[in-house]
Amino acid sequence: MITVFPETDRKYIYADRKDEPSLKMNTRGLRSQLKDSVPVTGLCPQAGPYGVQDSLRRGFSSVKNELLPSHPLELSEKNFQFNQDKMNFNTLRNIQGLHAPLKLQMEYRAAKQIQRLPFLPSSNLALDTLRGSDDTIGFEDILNDPIQSEMMGDPHIMTEYKLGIL
Amino acid sequence: MATVSVCQYHPGGFSFENCKRNALLEADINKLGFSSPAARKTGTTICGVVYKDGVVLGADTRATEGMVVADKNCSKIHYISPNIYCCGAGTAADTEMTTQIISSNLELHALSTGRLPRVATANRMLKQMLFRYQGYIGAALVLGGVDCTGPHLYSIYPHGSTDKLPYVTMGSGSLAAMAVFEDRYRPNMEEEEAKRLVRDAIAAGIFNDLGSGSNIDLCVITKGKVDYLRPHDVANKKGVRTGSYRYKHGTTGVLTKAVIPLNLEVVEESVQTMDTS
Prior knowledge:
The structure holds two protein chains of two kinds. Chain A contains nine helices and no strands. Chain A is mainly α. In chain A, 3% of the residues are buried. Chain B is an alpha+beta fold. Chain B has five helices and 13 strands. The longest helix of chain B is centred in the middle third of the chain and has 22 residues, at 92-113. Classes of the chains: A mainly alpha, B alpha+beta. Chain A binds chain B through residues 36, 55-60, 65, 69-74, 76-77, 80-81, 118, 121, 135-146, 149, 151, 153-154, 157-158, 161, 166, and chain B through 2-17, 19-20, 23, 97, 101, 104-105, 108-109, 111-112, 129, 132-134, 136. Chain B: Keywords: Cytoplasm, Hydrolase, Nucleus, Protease, Proteasome, Threonine protease.
């Protein structure tokens, strides 16, 4: 079952994993799909699984840091790709009907799953081709290229986060 | 020991990690009475005009850093595509990077469509990018070129608004240049007249605005041909010294002279071949 978000709501497309007998993942994995989204109205508080502040994993936090972004563009840039996609899919839905964004998002979902291990850089070739970003260059390709970053994330923690166990 | 773990891959692009720290540092520095270093700007005069066969773009060549001239001969007319050029005013790094990114994107786009890119495409790409960054990228541009639909000239402001006009000026000297344009522009000029008009407009900016100076660069774009005249006019020659401070021979009288020959003998002679591989 695939649910499409209505225009005004902030929910996302997710597949109900209970209906897929082949994937033996527990439903805790569902949380891994929802937690990556940044709500548009504010910065995500550093809440851990029990709702309190997660000092071990996210470091110390202060109310001042959480309330306001450090730069007016920070939120807008964090959500830019997501908002662009949302806008484009909405336009597509209005022009061509519901089937068009539905089919495209199915392909996106499939392409997003083609990844290396969480701590290794993936080329995202299929996803780029679908998005059309394989023949555009932006600041995300020039500045802070993750392939050239000097630090690597801790493999255990990143895998646990990906599986939702963390 | 609590460490901040990286849980996800960071996508790249602008990083806002140091913004709070920078704001604190700036506040501290201002409290002590100093000022933080200023970005290099091109307080500038740039302008463009559409004439009978194409477009003439003009720019001065001074780059300032606060109250000091950082570059006496910088190039402000940037290449976008073989038939499109762009003059940039504002923060020098921003105009440089923006025009390079748009140039790359246009090249990829042209390879994908198989056609010569249009000026309207470059305009649309620039305005969407500048609007995305809400004016924090300080690039004010004059974009001009000739494509299959004819000559076009656009002015693009840092917040992302654009104007399509037959003559535009931008930069700190824009008012001086616009005064010249308003006086002498007429539609469908000849090439020589258009070049003279742009040269005079930039000269007005150079001589009446502190942020503009040095030489005048021109770029004449017609269908199938681009003339990049750099420098078209050296309006400000560095002054020639009128006198010489060298002393004449014999100014200082010689009292005594003693010559001591140093007899050196060759002890060892060895040849070391250069590594030319």
